[in-house]
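Example 3.2
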Amino acid sequence: MSPSTYSAALFLLVTAPGFGQTPIHILASNGVKGVVEKLRPQMESAAGHPLAIQYGTTASFRQKIAAGEPFDLVLLTTEAVDDLAKDGKISAASRTALARCGVGVGIRKGAAKPDISTPAALKQTLLNAKSITYVTKGASRHTIEAALAHLGIADQMKAKTKLAPASGEAGESVAKGRVELLITLVSEIVTVPGVELVGPLPSEVQGYIHFAAGVGAKAENAEAASKVIAFLSSSAAAPTYKSSGLEVH
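Structure, written as tokens:
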């Protein structure tokens, strides 16, 4: 949806009878940014309120929440949501599984696609690459480094690895040709302008990141936040997850 189309849709929503003016504050992982942006108008319609969404790494949001960051709803990794529930930061009863996403490889749009179809092919592609990048505190880092270790090339890849502070910087470095390969969640690769998805990692070295939602224990409008979760976990949202590189539970 273009910015102008979204603005027009939002105007119609906020001027509709019964539509609340107080925004629902959402902290969302970069891994679900693509699907959330596509579904945003429907989410706002379901909530009956506009949405104020922050995107970032799950690790960064865990730190912000621990420091007292206010929020109504989180869309983060399942592990983080479960920990937040244990800590009393979100309502345990609201915890809802959403989807999972595998790790993939991206290249600059238009570049020749390398072979990553098997562990052996992936290994050779990585060894041939001039450089790779992934996010320092990204949810996929563990899977990436476990894959490199499984392939027996962790040490060889250190010199050509350029860690990025955020997914935006990692994607931009590949789009502009500064780095050859982007390795991150498939759902993040498909949203980067100028970057093309090669494909997911082979099953032998693949690892999935699971995402869940939860309503903040101190949410100003828990009912509206719960309505957002209900929509995101409904069959109506499922096709958008798939087109955004995620798999519905």
